[in-house]
Design brief:
Blueprint: H1 4-21, H2 44-58, H3 66-69, H4 73-83, H5 95-98, H6 125-135, E1 140-144, H7 157-164, H8 178-181, H9 187-194, H10 197-200, E2 210-213, H11 214-230, E3 238-241, H12 247-258, E4 262-265, H13 275-289, E5 293-296, H14 301-304, E6 316-319, H15 320-324, E7 340-345, E8 355-359, H16 360-374, E9 382-384, H17 391-404, E10 408-410, H18 413-418, H19 421-430, E11 434-437, H20 439-448, E12 464-467, H21 474-484, E13 494-496, E14 508-509, E15 518-522, H22 523-529, E16 542-546, E17 550-551, E18 556-560, E19 573-578, H23 590-596, E20 597-598, E21 601-611, E22 614-620, E23 625-627, E24 630-632, H24 634-642, E25 647-658, E26 665-673, H25 678-696, E27 702-706, H26 721-729, H27 739-776, H28 782-799, E28 804-807, E29 818-822, H29 829-836, E30 842-846, H30 853-861, E31 865-867, H31 872-887, E32 892-894, H32 912-920, E33 923-930, H33 932-935, E34 948-952, H34 963-978
Parallel strand pairs: 1-10, 3-4, 3-5, 5-6, 9-10, 11-12, 12-13, 26-27, 28-34, 29-32, 29-33, 30-31, 30-32
Antiparallel strand pairs: 1-2, 7-8, 14-17, 15-16, 18-19, 19-21, 20-21, 21-22, 23-24, 25-26, 33-34
Length: 995
């Protein structure tokens, strides 16, 4: 039945059922591979309804066991084929549905040929390239624009110099710092370095220097693959690429893949005069990767060959032009999805290179997730100046465009840095709908583009202006919008995003078209208590933090407290994640891999909090410093500064510190010295700044010359950069070094108090639980046992200092039968309801709890009823038993979310409780529990002091026992609880208002 009409009809039915019966509107995405329960929110009852509709829609009889065996629409498709050729009626079918994105109801069908731009069946990007090249070889993939006279391939030293000349390290970082980018004294200076303004300016309608089609790219990449094979490259061998932006880069990168190799992108030398020094700095990465080959522009081959004998093994140096001259082989290699497809080096320096391993499948998974989050379509176009050795430029801009078939306009980083208006002119001329850059690039445009250059700019088609790779500043967003609204730019296009190399590139995106969401928080509470509390009166210290949105489809983000437990809403902690592109680790570095792995999650090294279900990044815990989008190893900065005469070697700390005004990360160096004279200290500071600039091509934002023993160290002599940063940010530079010691003691006090409270709470719990447990074995009847357990829990909350406020009790008075439904955020929720609800209620729990002997004995003594959500057929039988109990006059208490989740937020509700209520005509009483996650986080046993609230809400009733009545009860109950539980309702359309 693999025909378009039948697939479309199937997805149409699934989408309708998911929208009507699925939990909380989670049916935004419907694809053949979607999980019916996890992705679409269809519980056992909803799946039973789906099967019934499919039978009526297709005129077939489906097997009874399909209710339990079908996990995806693809399973249903196979069952329909086996049941007989289906006869679907007319149904609209759109490209969005085929890509797994539901189209609006009533949308007219578009031509199926529009789907030709997306190789949905490809397992790797090389397969995607072949797909495009076979079907549309003449379709334009790349347009390269450069100054007149510069070859598109940059295959000579002159070309490299033309692309990356002075400022020295502009293109060698993810773009250079704004102050360095502004180093030209006048426009004439810029023209002298990079050609005249007439040569470099992008005008509307101007053609690119080079145009590359899919067919030509695949052909050229095949020749490169043949050249690599001639040089003995074997599958899995690493190939270092030190090439500037140009046609040769794209051909060589793909050629490595077609030869079965693993590309290792390196940033190219900033200028030819310093190429040798640059090569020496890259030796550590090349050696760590164990690269077999180093590919450079042909004109640099002899110069680069000097590097060959410096590593643990000899590295062959080859010119890109030499590889491309080989005749193409008959057949290219097809890498497996699980094979390593890329090594991304996170430090970009020789201090501690770490190669992030990403498989071919992981790269494609991240690209698809980002495309799904953005809703990329056939009409989208990308424009980029981002360097191709950085994940945002390489994966986000280029490889994403390659997969989705988007025309990509590319310019060199320096073309933007020397004249930022070129980026916007490229977007205007190319009609780009998508472009991305770090925060500093938006600042650069807002500050350095003169008014006269805005004439003719049309930014109205730019619908996704992604801002990532470094801290996002609310002020920068405001300034950019204020400056370019006159050019048609819309604030709703701004998309602050979050990602990291360990996830390939993207991890969290905001909803498309919403615009930035800015949280105003109390800076003092953030600094002293680690809480992101909303700011009060305007006179108080306020910090504006920009939301990065929610995790991409298929990914999860969690905030961990200091004890590694899930943090509460608005509690600052470490950001960890997991998902389909989470790296397996660092190449040949198990120690560093183990350091970032936390119970199956990966530690990002960043700090943040969740509010309203969205991620807010507040700082960093790992040592890597982000400077103008470039990741710097602090060891490199410290080594350069420590070599300066007068500075105590080994007594230097380098770290990133958030600017309190702009929110950008500043590079700070604290260096110990015994120099006392003012002139000598000033000279030493200048030498430190010069040494770091020469070695790494970055400028220091603040240098602190401190007396000996100021830089904090561990007992083994390692630099404590985080502690030194805290000392600096709290004014330690103006106080004696011993202030840092008292600061550390003060910081430890809250943790010690938390441990003491947890110990007291557990002591109290067992003191009450043991006698209650013994009494339950001699007391008759579940009701009496429930009263005893409830009294014990009320005593526990009172003695533990956990106040419990209950409001709305009148809504339960004399109501028989009724069904109480409550949100489920913590292990405390069941005992809490048992303590403060009528003991005559029968609690309903998952049958999986019966697997543990202690819990089973306790729950059975309390008369708990059980359902099995994992077995659809058994689950329906369990619901029938519940309906019989309700008809007999029993009242039920149910958690319709079904299970706990570490992620804050109200999850979709299962339909079972509401189906029972509709069938028997029972009232549904929503109960909102607030604060339990903060007292005892899910899947942890570390209690914290806090306040709890139980809100019994007005009862709901709906006449009729059909599906519509059950769905109506569910949605109304969830909406009522969402308004009182204090956490966002996931996938329900409830979102905080943007500021």
């Amino acid at each position: 039945m693999e025909n378009r009409e039948s697939v479309g009809a199937l997805l149409h039915v699934v989408r309708d059922v998911a929208r009507e019966l699925g939990g909380g509107g989670v049916a935004a995405d419907v694809a053949l591979e979607a999980d019916l329960e996890r992705d679409l929110g269809l519980d056992s009852l909803a799946r039973a309804a789906l099967l019934d509709r499919l039978e009526r829609r297709f005129g077939v009889r489906l097997p009874e066991d399909l209710l339990g065996s079908a996990r995806t629409p693809a399973d249903l498709l196979r069952a329909l084929e086996q049941a007989g050729r289906p006869r679907p009626g007319p149904v609209s079918f759109s490209p969005e549905a085929a890509r797994g994105k539901a189209s609006p109801a009533g949308e007219s069908a578009r031509a199926w040929a529009a789907l030709a731009g997306v190789p949905a069946g490809a397992a790797t990007l090389p397969e995607a390239l072949a797909w495009h090249a076979t079907r549309e070889p003449d379709r334009v993939h790349l347009r390269l624009w450069e100054p007149a006279g510069a070859a598109a391939s940059h295959d000579s030293p002159a070309d490299a110099a033309a692309s990356h000349g002075s400022p020295a390290d502009a293109a060698a970082s993810h773009g250079i710092p704004a102050d360095a980018a502004a180093s030209h004294d006048s426009p004439a200076d810029a023209a002298a370095s990079h050609g005249s303004p007439a040569d470099m300016t992008m005008r509307p309608g101007e053609s690119a220097t080079a145009t590359v089609t899919y067919g030509k790219l695949a052909e050229a990449a095949g020749r490169v693959a043949a050249g690599l094979a001639q040089r003995g490259l074997a599958p899995g061998d690493r190939v270092a690429l030190m090439l500037p932006t140009g046609v040769s880069y794209f051909e060589t990168f793909l050629g490595v893949w077609l030869a079965g190799g693993v590309p290792v992108p390196l940033y190219p030398p900033a200028r030819l005069a310093r190429a040798a020094e640059h090569m020496r700095r890259q030796a550590g990465i090349i050696a760590d990767a164990g690269a077999e080959l180093l590919v450079v522009p042909s004109g640099m081959r002899l110069l680069a060959a000097a590097l060959g004998g410096r590593g643990a093994k000899r590295v062959d140096v080859v010119g890109a032009g030499d590889l491309a001259a080989a005749p193409r082989r008959e057949r290219d290699l097809s890498p497996r999805p699980e094979a390593v497809g890329l090594l991304q080096y996170t430090s970009g320096s020789t201090g501690s290179p770490k190669g992030v391993m990403l498989s071919h499948g992981q790269l494609l998974a991240n690209i698809r997730a980002m495309g799904e989050a953005l809703g990329i379509g056939p009409g989208d176009r990308f424009a980029s100046w981002l360097p191709l050795y950085h994940d945002m430029g390489l994966i986000g801009a280029w490889l994403g465009s390659l997969y989705f078939g988007m025309p990509l306009l590319v310019m060199s980083p320096l073309a933007f840095l020397s004249r930022p208006v070129r980026w916007l002119q490229a977007i205007s001329a190319h009609g780009a709908t998508i472009s991305a850059a770090p925060n500093f690039a938006y600042d650069l445009c807002a500050e350095r583009i003169p008014d006269e250059d805005l004439a003719g700019l049309d930014l109205s088609r730019w619908r996704f202006a992604l801002n990532g790779a470094e801290p996002v500043s609310a002020e920068s967003l405001d300034s950019f919008c204020a400056r370019f609204t006159r050019c048609g730019f819309r604030r709703a296009a701004l998309m602050p995003v979050y990602g990291l190399a360990e996830a390939a590139v993207g991890l969290a995106f905001p909803p498309p078209g919403r615009g930035p969401l800015v949280d105003r928080i109390d800076r003092a509470r953030l600094e002293t208590a680690g809480r992101a509390e909303p700011a009060g009166p305007p006179t108080r210290r306020v910090l504006r933090v920009v939301s990065c949105g929610r995790a991409l489809p298929g990914y999860e983000i969690r905030i961990l407290a200091q004890d590694a437990s899930p943090a509460a809403e608005r509690q600052v902690g470490r950001i960890v994640f997991r998902g389909p592109s989470a790296t397996a680790g660092y190449f040949r570095n198990p120690a560093e891999t183990a350091r970032i792995t936390v119970d199956g999650w990966l530690d990002t090294g960043d700090l943040g909090y969740m509010a309203g279900g969205e991620l807010y990044v507040t700082g960093r815990v790992k040592d890597v410093i982000i400077k103008a989008g470039r990741n710097l190893a602090p060891q490199d900065v410290e080594a350069a500064a420590g070599a300066v005469p007068g500075i105590r070697k080994g007594c230097v700390a380098a770290f990133g510190s958030r600017d309190p005004v702009t929110g950008a990360e500043r590079l700070v160096v604290v260096a110990e010295t015994r120099l006392a004279e003012h002139a000598a200290r000033q000279a030493a500071m200048r030498r430190v700044a010069s040494a770091v600039s020469e070695a790494l091509g970055v400028s220091i934002d603040d240098i602190v010359l401190a007396p000996p023993h100021t830089v904090l160290k561990t007992s083994s002599g390692k630099i404590r950069r985080g502690a030194t940063r805290d000392w600096y940010e709290r004014g330690g530079a103006a106080r004696p070094p011993l202030a840092a010691i008292s600061l550390a003691v003060r910081d430890a006090a809250p943790r010690m108090a938390a441990v003491a409270y947890a110990a007291w709470a557990w002591t109290l719990f067992f003191a009450l639980a043991i006698p209650v447990w013994l009494a339950m074995w001699v007391m008759p009847g579940p009701a009496l046992r429930r009263r005893l357990a409830g009294a014990a829990m009320r005593s526990f909350f009172r003695l533990a200092g956990i106040p419990v406020a209950v409001r709305g009790r009148e809504h339960l008075a004399a109501r028989r039968p009724c069904i109480v439904v409550a949100n489920h955020f913590s292990y405390l929720d069941g005992p809490l309801l048992a303590a403060f609800l009528d003991p005559e209620f029968d609690f309903v729990a998952t049958r999986q709890l019966l697997a543990e002997r202690f819990k089973r004995a306790l729950l059975e003594r309390l008369g708990v009823r059980f359902v099995d959500p994992r077995d659809p057929r058994a689950g329906i039988a369990d619901l029938a038993d519940l309906a019989a109990a309700a008809r007999a006059g029993r009242s039920l208490a149910i958690f319709p979310e079904g299970h706990l989740s570490a992620e804050p937020g109200l999850r979709p509700f299962h339909l079972g409780a509401f189906r029972v209520a509709a069938q028997v005509g029972a009232e549904v009483v929503p109960v909102a529990i607030r604060g339990s996650r903060g007292v005892l986080a899910p899947y942890t046993w570390f209690p914290r002091r806090g306040a709890l609230e139980i809100a019994v809400l007005p009862p709901l009733v709906r006449a009729g026992g059909d599906w519509a009545a059950a769905v109506d009860l569910r949605d109304r109950a969830r909406g009522a609880i969402a308004g009182s539980c204090g956490e966002p309702a996931h996938s329900s359309g409830i979102r905080p208002d943007p500021q």
